[in-house]
């Protein structure tokens, strides 16, 4: 896969026609986890289908105002980015960033989160997120200046106040 030209990344609003991609993205993001479970293929598929439905319902209920975007590279979808912005209270929340497995580890997530931090910083706001305690992205968030402010049912609540964030090298989108 090699290096990525981040200038070829774009975001666009998710629409109903994207649902098959979003569903498959979710399934692929759980492949490594499913490889460790001694279930039949049909049981794994059923489990993932139910989990996807539950996650979608949860996001729709808890974050009805979410900005749901596809991450595109050279015009092709490679992931999703979900955020919530409350301009009044200056609270921004990163709900989800998920990439196709072959796009992980190339700096795409770091690049997009850096852009988000820069944008939030320009608004003198704070950025929060939740991450599972065993998610490898936890260390990325720590490296990017997020601090743990809570712990609930195995998920860390993290915050980057974006006012004292480190000099981040990417342009705001």
TrEMBL record:
One GO molecular-function entry: acyltransferase activity, transferring groups other than amino-acyl groups
Source organism, top-level taxon: Bacteria
Annotated ranges, domain N-acetyltransferase: 9-169
Protein name, per record: Ribosomal-protein-alanine N-acetyltransferase
Entries under InterPro entries matching the protein: Acyl_CoA_acyltransferase, GNAT_dom
Alphabetic keyword roster: Transferase
Pfam families assigned to the protein according to its UniProt record, in alphabetical order: Acetyltransf_10
């Amino acid at each position: 896969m090699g290096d990525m030209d981040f200038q070829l990344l774009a975001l666009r609003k998710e629409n109903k026609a994207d649902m098959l991609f979003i569903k498959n993205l979710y399934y692929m993001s759980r492949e490594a986890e499913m490889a460790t479970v001694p279930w039949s293929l049909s049981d794994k598929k059923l489990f993932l289908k139910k989990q996807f439905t539950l996650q979608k319902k949860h996001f729709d209920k808890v974050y009805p105002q979410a900005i749901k975007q596809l991450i595109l590279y050279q015009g092709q979808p490679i992931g999703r980015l979900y955020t919530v912005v409350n301009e009044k209270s200056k609270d921004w929340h990163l709900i989800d960033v998920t990439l196709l497995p072959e796009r992980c580890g190339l700096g795409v997530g770091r690049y997009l989160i850096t852009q988000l931090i820069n944008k939030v910083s320009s608004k003198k706001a704070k950025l929060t997120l939740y991450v599972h305690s065993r998610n490898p992205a936890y260390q990325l968030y720590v490296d990017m200046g997020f601090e743990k402010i809570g712990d609930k049912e195995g998920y860390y609540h993290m915050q980057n106040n974006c006012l004292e964030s480190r000099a981040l090298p990417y342009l705001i989108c």
